[in-house]
Amino acid sequence: MNVSRLTDLAVAALGWLAYAARRPLRGSTSALWAVVVGLVTISLIPTLAIGSSQRPTDLTFEDVRLQEIPANTTWVRLEGDLQKADGANVYHLRTASDTEHYVVVTALVALETGPVEMTGHLMFGSLGAEIIGFLDADVPAVPRRDEPFHLILVPAAIAIVLAIGMSLGYPVIRRDRRSGSSPARLSPGESIKVDWSGRIGRVTVADDVPIPSTISLTPDPDHPEISHLAIVADGGSWAFRLRRAAPTRAVRLCRVSGSTAGLEIHAQTADIVLAFPDQDSRDRLVATLS
Question: What mean pLDDT do residues 77-102 have?
Answer without folding.
Answer: 90
